[in-house]
Amino acid sequence: MASNSQAAKTLGAGAVRLSKRIILSYILDWILILFIAGLGGIFNKALSKRANKRPFYLQDPSITYPYLPDTVTVAQAGCVALLLPALITMIISLTVIPGPTASKSTPKALIWRRKFWEWNTAWMGLGFALASAFMITEGLKDLAGKPRPHMLAVCNPDLTAINRYRVGGLGQSFDVTGATPIRVSADICRETNPQVLREAFASWPSGHSSFSFAGLLYLSLFLCAKFAVGIPYFMPNQQTAHANTYEYDSSLRHRQPHRTTDRTSPLSTSSTSSRTQHEESSDDFTPPPRNSTAAPPIYLVLIAVFLPVGGAIYICVSRWFDYHHHGIDILSGAFIGATSAYLSFRYYHMPIRRGSGWSWGARTRGRAFWVGVGRDGYVGEEGWIAKKAAERDMADVESGRSTAAIKRVTGTGTEDRGDVEGGNGAGRLDTPNGPGQLDTSSTVGTFDASQGVRRFDASNGAGRLDTPH
Fold first, then answer.
1. Higher-confidence residue: 108 or 127?
2. What would the DSSP string read from start to end of 297-335?
3. Where are stretches of biased composition, namely Low complexity (predicted)?
4. pTM: predicted TM-score of the whole model, two decimal places
């Protein structure tokens, strides 16, 4: 009991001894995300007076559609793509995290640190996706200056001044009232409001499409990660071709150890007849491939995939039947938004099918701003603890004065990569061939793998060892 109490105190202490350098590092990240979004706003406002307006044919039927109001307004698209994902990701991070695998003896401070960290990464990924899509879209709109399908309805061209604003075509000898295409500049438009005219030449790419896919596809990826929604597949290291794999067996259960009986021979002696039966256990087999995974419930697929992605698709299609964008504009915007959502999600979250729903861990104090040559990443050994605390613990470790300091330095009970564990509980050994159990004594150590340092936690009993998959 004393050991468990000491472990709990160590966990709680590690949860509150945060490094100011790490906090400042992520504050800077947030500032840069807001700067990217602000840069998109600058493109929208500052470049509006100098925005390109591509010359057009007056006879082009693709720009002769009537002007219709928005089915999905800019404010509505912002609420659906920004506020709704932000609210849902916050609720899930604060309620679902850390999940059912967390030990009941884990201190509340450590659990809430995990909740707030998952909340932070959820919003950082969402903000990065939306800011990137917004900046790219607004910058391309002014560079391209492509006419919208309803451009002529907004432009209201002066048909008496065609020759004055002619910029191309087949020459001056053709009848301007005939069927010969005549390319003219935007100066022929009689619309006097420069902002309205600029919007008429902002067709490519679609901002509604990019913003909706950036926010709603990110939400879909987030929900799939937290609820383990994915198409079943074989792990790369999964053994499915073992000689004793009974993949064509019709049984729904794993094969049980079988018992064989030696019948007594009439010629047997008393010494041999006393051994009448023995058990043989067959453990040299692997389960059938169909028992290696299972499909998630359909209602989770509807919630995590169909609803968010369907909402994004509806917003995109509304831009088509409202005559605000051409088809290639909508597809281009959806591609920009989807790419931003996926890259931003993977930047902060582990893969859906192999990450168990967790986000990546935080940078460490020594690598909060710069890695330097010879280091392959932004993680280290000190975790979240502050500089003075880390130096004091290391001094205690070197002198052998404090067992609690050894646990803090080696990361006991502060595992940020997977389940939150603490106290005296059963542990897990993850190996390339599958999960197994590891029973240890009351020891603490570190495990150096080829891809980095992994922590080995033990607390008066079973421990856990994470190795690269």
1. 127
2. PHHHHIIIIIHHHHHHHHHHHHHHHTTSS-HHHHHHHHH
3. 263-275
4. 0.75
